[in-house]
Amino acid sequence: MRAHADQLFGARCAPRPDWEDDAACVGDEHFYERDTVTDAVIAHQRRVCGTCTVAADCLLDALAHERVQAGWQVSARGGLLAQERRYLTKDAR
């Protein structure tokens, strides 16, 4: 997990301004399915994140201030699910 973060971030510690405009998930209604998070939904989220040019920015944003709106805790951000992000922040301490 730590290697994943190091590979994405390099020396960066904050997301670039306006990174959300370039996110691959923008407009993808299936990415944000929150009512039924199945293995298929998670696999779709990971595929989308895998093609995203701003995945590192998204993950940095999530690690800096996890969204508190309903559903963000189950969505992949930067290719990682909420429990993986929690592990990463715990590992970094």
Automatic annotation (TrEMBL):
Q: Which Pfam families match?
A: Whib (PF02467)
UniProt xrefs under InterPro entries: 4FE4S_WBL (IPR034768)
4Fe-4S Wbl-type domain residues: 12-87
Question: Which protein is depicted?
Answer: WhiB family transcriptional regulator
Give the organism the record lists.
Answer: Cellulomonas xiejunii
